[in-house]
Amino acid sequence: MTGVTISDNQVRRLAHEVGHELIARRDRKAVEHRRRQLEPRTAVVPVAVVVEVDGGRIRTRAAGAGPGVHEAQNKEDKVACLATLSGPTFATDPCPEPPESFRCPRRVRRLVQQMKGPAGEVAPPETVDESTPPVPAGEPEGAERWSPTRLVRTCVASLEGSTAFGPMMAAEAQERRFYEAPRRAFVADGQAYNWTIWRGYFGAFEPIVDFLHAVCYVFSSAAAVSPDEASGWSQYVAWMRACWQGRVGEVLTELDQWQARLGEPPPGEAATAEERRDPRRVVAHARTYLGNNRDRVAYPRYRRNGLPTTSSLVESLVGEINARVKSTQKHWTRPDGAESILQLRAAVLSQDDRLPRFFAERPGSSFRKRDTLCHKSEGATAQTVA
């Protein structure tokens, strides 16, 4: 656009320089949050908000080992989506029956495949672009929309563990006044560290386990205990409807009966795909998942309160981040190279113009007066006032 030639190395150096500055700003805000010194950056208190968290995988290589990829490792990158919402509340459940998308065999099978379900299904080969989100949960044809609408999304991403990532999320939520919102939700899958973050920083938010993951578990279990595909589909629909209507206890009772009939799974982790498809393991995994999260599956109440029941927002966000940082050819230098690029990607995907604002406030920006000019201006103003 400018006709100025910039080398690849210069772009790379500047990108990591800005990324490290964003890391320093992010960490400083987390400290200010802990010390109760962080000020909100908006005057408006949102009506409804959701915090969603998920993880992806990013390829990394050792630093300082010369050209090429050395000591390659896959590292988990944690991603949080913080979104304001718009939508009504209801006196009764606005959608007591599951949407058609969960009763279509083709769509459900595709959903389970995309989410790499727990029953030992073989995941499709990894592709360069993983930005396609899972199949969404839509409303029936012609029905009034009941699910909330996303307004403004911001993003937090890091390779740090949950102990450090929780304060980052909390600082972002405080700056956006999420803790003051009348309706608050925290949505995640069943990973233990997600709920550790919830207990530590978002305990006043409604805890909601992602319905899409529950669908994967009941679908896999129904297929594992049924003699044929038709009966497996019928069993899935019955269990899925029970979960949708908040009757997870009934599903757990039936799974307990199936576990007693099949026997307990063999000790140890499954080493092969065939072992992972063992019906005893599949049913045991579903029982554990639903049992551990039975207090987070009150989906009728969530719908009445105008809150989301799936983690589709963060699933989609993870895909958008992966589209930039993940492919078979990309190995980011750990930890600095990977962490700095995640900050840039998170800033680009946040819908609050944070990257333009950062450059406008950055020392040396053409949009900001030099300190010397500011001092001269302040001195002249002081003399005029005097």
TrEMBL record:
Residues 116-146 are annotated as: Disordered. It comes from the Bacteria. This is LysR family transcriptional regulator. It comes from Gemmata obscuriglobus.
